[in-house]
Design brief:
Layout lengths: L5 E6 L2 E6 L10 H16 L5 E6 L26 H21 L4 E5 L2 E3 L1 H7 L3 E5 L3 E3 L15 H5 L1 H10 L3 E2 H6 L5 E3 L4 H13 L3 H17 L2 H16 L2 H12 L3 H16 L1
Parallel strand pairs: 2-3, 3-4, 4-6, 5-7, 6-9
Antiparallel strand pairs: 1-2, 7-8
């Protein structure tokens, strides 16, 4: 596959997979999702690769799904005409491809700066280790649009259930230092040293016996499954699909579709919450 929305490079046993839509804050259109899935599978199959680093070019890791592309434009997300079509598309394109990162046989380290929101939070949350820049912001404001969070409800697993409820009920993000205190990220480093520090950690992991790391990751993930991780994600996905069919979300998204500038819709959506915070 020829990549247009990501950068892929392998050196010294480390595959760097970088989201490359910086002018859109690495918002995920369908082209990016498919290319990312291909690149990660490629890295997993490459015997020379021991560790994968997943990051984003520019100011942000990822601002979420590219919601501007409501019409069927090149690389846009598909808007199914019915519940059945939406369930199938979002399961295959969003849910399954995200969970594939969790299931990769090699360790994946997220390199996160700036916005890490909604679908961006899903990507980072599926990684085994997260190194965050001091300017990173983790959030999920989609409840403000009438959705029941995103397709994968990782939030209580990352931040704890009470902090996750506050994040989702308000739409307000969590900063890097608080995310570190909550155990949601492994390290917080100065923005200018993010790439250097992430690569140094990846190099340390790459020195470990690869099959032992693979088996350890498998066992840790299975421990999470015994705790209900995958069942909880499955249960929420169905709730997310039901929320798509409510009159509430249809009214809110109809406004978004009618806006000439989606950025203005987002500004109007978030304005009352900015005022409330002062």
């Amino acid at each position: 596959m020829e990549y247009k929305t990501i950068l892929y490079d392998v050196a010294d046993g480390i595959a760097k997979v970088m989201l490359n839509r910086p002018s859109q804050r690495n918002a995920q259109n369908e082209a990016l999702i498919l290319e990312l899935d291909d690149a990660l599978a490629r890295a997993a199959a490459d015997e020379q690769v021991r560790v994968i680093v997943l990051g984003g070019i520019g100011a942000s890791f990822s601002s979420g799904h590219d919601m501007r592309l409501y019409k069927r434009e090149d690389g846009s997300l598909y808007r199914a005409p019915n519940v059945e079509g939406r369930w199938d598309y979002e399961r295959k394109t969003f849910y399954d491809k995200c969970l594939a990162i969790w299931d990769l046989p090699k360790p994946v380290i997220a390199q996160v700066q700036g916005h890490c929101l909604s679908a961006g939070l899903m990507l980072a949350g599926m990684c085994d280790i997260i190194v965050a820049a001091d300017d990173a912001q983790f959030g999920d404001p989609v409840v403000r649009m009438g959705a029941a969070s995103v397709e994968l409800l990782l939030h209580p697993w990352l931040f704890g259930v009470r902090r996750a409820k506050e994040m989702l009920f308000t739409g307000d993000p969590i900063g890097a230092q608080e995310a570190l205190a909550l155990g949601a990220v492994n390290r917080v480093v100065p923005r200018e040293r993010l790439e250097e520090e992430t690569l140094a950690l990846a190099q340390r992991v790459a020195k470990m016996p690869p099959f032992a790391v693979r088996m350890t990751k498998y066992s840790l993930n299975r421990t999470m499954d015994f705790m209900g991780f995958r069942n909880a994600l499955n249960a929420h996905f169905d709730v997310h699909q039901v929320a798509h069919a409510t009159s509430e979300i249809q009214a809110l998204l109809d406004r978004a579709r009618q806006e000439k500038e989606f950025k203005q819709f987002l500004a109007d959506r978030d304005a009352p919450f900015r005022e409330a915070k002062g």
